[in-house]
Specification:
CATH topology of the domain at 56-116: Globin-like
Distance between the termini: 17 Å
Oligomer: single chain
Order of helices and strands: HHHEEH
Largest sheet: 2 strands, parallel
Helix content: 40-55%
Strand order of the largest sheet: 1-2
Number of helices: 4
CATH class of the domain at 56-116: Mainly Alpha
Length: about 120
Amino acid sequence: MMKLTVPLIAEVCHEANRVLQKRHGEKVSPPWDEASEHIKSSVIDGVQNALVGASAQGSHENWVRFKLEQGWTYGEVKDEEKKTHPCLVAYRDLPDEQKFKDKLFLGIVETFKVPI
């Protein structure tokens, strides 16, 4: 049996998010194996936060904190080079499809929850 690790859980979360990005007509992130270290570290940070019991709102707030610490700012369009993202807003101001992503992320983590 394969040992579940934080990076493996992060990869599953990332790939599920890519499906939703496609479904919602958003710019689709690269596959995990082609993703930048920033993307990977952001998802891994999110998994670690979820493993200690974050709510959907707490997960989003953690993601916002992570992005701001990395120099990102709010922008109408997600742009990795300019470090702008339209979801750098309070949880209550997120569109429903973005809130769903947070809930799905937590559901995936919960399904694969392992002691770390």
